[in-house]
């Protein structure tokens, strides 16, 4: 089915049907570029949590600097929260190594294992089968990287 230009079209994933929303204006015309920009700023202002006058002629350099500073502050706060969450969720590798040593288990990083495999491959004391096995194992670890 043909729909007028400027209509919003979407696929409803629950029903599998395509849906179209007619333009909001009674005349059927889509919004002008300026009206779309103002709607976008109004919508963005709602999500960011600070008020900005959407008239482009009313912005001063000080207004822009203040808005940018607030954005940077909120971004720093978000990063701090995510870092603290990760810090609670994960433990440092040194602490894990100590705990595994108490259990008589040695933990090695991929980097350490790859170093041992390269040493085994370069060693003149290794047999051909050991070198081939080292290459296969090394291929696995390199693939992970």
TrEMBL record:
Organism encoding this protein: Chloropsis cyanopogon
GO molecular function terms noted in the UniProt entry: adenyl-nucleotide exchange factor activity
Keyword Acetylation assigned: no
InterPro entries attached to this UniProt entry: Hsp70_NEF-Inhibitors
Segments for region (Disordered): 1-40
Gene: Sil1
One GO CC term, this protein: endoplasmic reticulum
Tagged with keyword Protein transport: yes
A GO BP annotation: protein transport
Residue stretches of biased makeup (Basic and acidic residues): 16-35
Keywords associated with the record: Endoplasmic reticulum, Protein transport, Transport
Protein name: SIL1 factor
């Amino acid at each position: 089915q043909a729909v007028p230009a400027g209509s919003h079209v979407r696929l409803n994933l629950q029903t599998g049907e395509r849906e179209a929303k007619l333009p909001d204006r009674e005349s059927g015309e889509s919004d002008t570029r300026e009206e779309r920009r103002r709607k976008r700023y109004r919508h963005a202002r709602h999500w960011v949590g600070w008020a900005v006058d959407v008239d482009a002629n009313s912005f001063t350099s000080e207004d822009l600097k203040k808005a940018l500073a607030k954005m940077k502050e909120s971004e720093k706060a978000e990063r701090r929260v995510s870092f603290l969450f990760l810090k609670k969720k994960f433990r440092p590798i040194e602490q894990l190594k100590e705990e595994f040593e108490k259990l008589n288990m040695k933990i090695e990083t991929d980097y350490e294992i790859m170093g041992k495999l390269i040493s085994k491959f370069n060693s003149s004391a290794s047999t051909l089968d050991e070198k081939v096995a080292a290459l296969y194992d090394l291929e696995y670890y390199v693939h992970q990287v």
